[in-house]
Write a structure and sequence with these properties.
The structure is a homodimer.
Chain A: E1 2-7, H1 11-21, E2 26-31, E3 44-47, H2 51-59, E4 65-68, E5 83-89, E6 106-110, H3 113-124, E7 130-132, H4 135-165, H5 174-183, H6 189-192, H7 202-209, H8 214-229
């Protein structure tokens, strides 16, 4: 039996609590970061709060192993005097929308071998994709995630805006969106690149610009150039 | 029995031929656009060549109903003197990689009601997602597809590049990539937007810029601004 305490009230805290709660071998509890005057003992204490609050919260925790769940923050952001680690589930969570943790990569980091084993064992109860990622790598992974998740979603929004202006249902594009995502599991994004930019099809490029507003044009031009220069 | 002739030798021609070929009710044949001196008769002639070649090829075809498969070109690009139409499967095809046409939207256009019915019937044999889309809408749809497919794939490449520079396996990001794609089937991309840009998290934004090269920084800054300005 592992006892787990989750501190936080956001999406990650909510999803982790629900996921651990289905496991008989894990005794999980959850408290809000505003109620830190009573901190239950636990084998692993997971601080799942915003990056800015990790330091302050961790100072108040005396449990043996304290980890945060941030992609962005270093392990050194934790200021508890006991052992430190990171337990970073790489997914974009939406509160209320159930997720299948089995396919969510969990990136772990610890300063001691024994703690790494504890975190690995804990991660194993949720996911079959566990990676040892240090703080420097995790920061790079986090910015990669901004590109493939946040920025990609913004391109979906642009596609949606163009469809709306032309009375086209956005869901026509859904199969293409999903196929584009699945394709890079099989071939590298570099090899998968298609479209007028990589074909150097200047006629199509010039014609497409007419359909865009000022800001869309800027993005179209910048990404087109990047594709053509291979960077 | 419908007879279909496909003219072309690219990915779309190859995939359409294979898809029609499995149907007993369709008699399909395929010729290369370089062998136009003998053009077999057919109920529907599908010109699946590059945009620049549609006009020249169509001039040489005398069959009753001639369509192209382009997202970009107007129906008027066809210069045959017989009936014209469009049969545009909205997917990014890779030669040799089998696709399931059932989920591929097919956008049709015709100048006569009777032809529209023929194209609808033909599309029905392949797909359960058929849309009537006119030339102006199709052009807009095509530029939307550039954003959600070509440009999105380029963002995957950027994520891949950042991973490579930091010895991180790119496939850690695959579940996030697929979840991001699936999410917009349920909630609008505008509502699905997460990340440091929309949170106005300037500390994270400034820190992430350090990990990027010059061109990546430009894209990061431009899309971040667009997300923050909602355009």
């Amino acid at each position: 039996m592992i006892t787990v305490l989750i501190i936080g009230n956001g999406n990650v805290a909510w999803h982790l609590f629900n996921a651990f709660n289905t496991h008989k071998s894990i005794n999980v509890s959850k408290i809000n970061s505003r109620t830190l005057h009573v901190i239950p003992k636990a084998d692993v204490t997971i601080i799942a709060v915003t990056d800015n609050a990790i330091e302050a919260v961790s100072k108040q925790v005396g449990n043996t192993l304290v980890v945060h769940t941030s992609g962005f923050s270093s392990i050194k952001t934790l200021k508890n005097t006991t052992n430190r680690g990171v337990f970073y589930p790489l997914q974009s969570f939406t509160k209320g929308k159930k997720v299948d943790f089995k396919n969510i990569p969990i990136c772990i980091e610890a300063e001691h071998k024994r703690d790494e084993e504890i975190l690995f064992h804990l991660a194993e109860t949720l996911s079959c994709k566990i990676y040892k990622i240090d703080s420097k790598q995790r920061k790079a992974l986090h910015v990669s995630a901004v590109f493939v998740n946040n920025f990609t979603n913004f391109l979906y929004k642009t596609g949606n805006d163009i469809c709306n202006r032309n009375n086209i249902p956005f869901n026509i594009l859904q199969p293409l969106i999903e196929e584009t995502a699945k394709k890079v599991a099989e071939i590298s994004p570099e090899a998968a690149q298609t479209g007028p930019a990589i074909r150097m099809d200047d006629k199509t490029i010039q014609n497409q610009l007419f359909l865009l507003n000022k800001q869309e044009k800027k993005i179209y031009n910048l990404i087109t150039k990047s594709i053509q220069n291979g960077n």
